[in-house]
Sugar transferase
Amino acid sequence: MINVEKHSTKEFTPEVHFIGSAQRFKSKKQVLNQDVIYVYCPIHRELEIGRIIEDYSFDIVINDYSLCDLHGKIICHFESASLEAEQRQFLVKATELGAWVEPLVSYLDSRLRYTEVRLLHSGYFLHQKAFSILSTKRTQLAKRVIDIASALLLLFFTLPIGLIAALAIKLESRGPIFYRQKRTGQYNVEFEVIKFRSMSTDAEHGGAQWATKNDARVTRVGNFIRKTRVDELPQVINILKGEMSIVGPRPEREVFITDLEREIPYYRFRHAVKPGVTGLAQVSYPYGASVDDAVWKHKYDIYYIKHHSMWLDIKVLFITVKVVLFGMGR
């Protein structure tokens, strides 16, 4: 349910006694499980926000400045800099009187575990210190060390599998064992990604095409190595060369990026980090090859960049191993 309240500019004086912040909520989990949240935004953004969040499992009340009992309420604000002084004071007062007050996008990040990219504006990306993976050299160095160590371990343990895959590819069809394709990486620099060939050699004789779930161009061996992610193993070379990371947004082709950035807000921001062999989007969203699918994957990619941590990388790697072992390729 979405309730859009009539905007009011009257003085806001909620009549409720102050309750200390320690007594507001027992845990963040309680904050994220509320049935109703209250959203405050410029009046001209009400309908837009309503359309974006209408499918959520919790109720949303927009711009209800008549709310008096603020204790225990979830108060989210959107573009608060565009609100009038009295309206901003209402949000400050809500904090004083026991409400949980947080930017809407940040709250949805925590609750949904992805970023609602349709609510993003340039200001979201201009606080670089909020993106530790971009602003902290120690984090970048640690990630690079983990990348090199992971690539060497992967190479050591999967070399027999790679040799068997190479032999099977060669026996099944004519053509090269490896497939090289230009992808766009960090800072929009193109590089050649290396994979085991999983398609026939004339797969794109008619031009660049989206790969689909049951793609007729995929060979029998290719179908198996795709499901088990064996086709990605040669990308350890890209990792060692510093072109890719073990975890990050999957690299895309420039021909598709040009189209996608027309449809998806801030799509190229994913290039602020190195692309990954696996990523949060790959383990969180099923296989897809459409603009809608790209939008959903972008939600997870932006969330990953914003909330990157070593723990998140480990979690993604753990899920990826499960996918490989049980053949649930995405």
Summary: The first strand starts at residue 2 and ends at 4. The CA atoms of residues 10 and 86 lie 8 Å apart. The chain has two domains: 2-112, 133-326. Residues 133-326 form one domain.
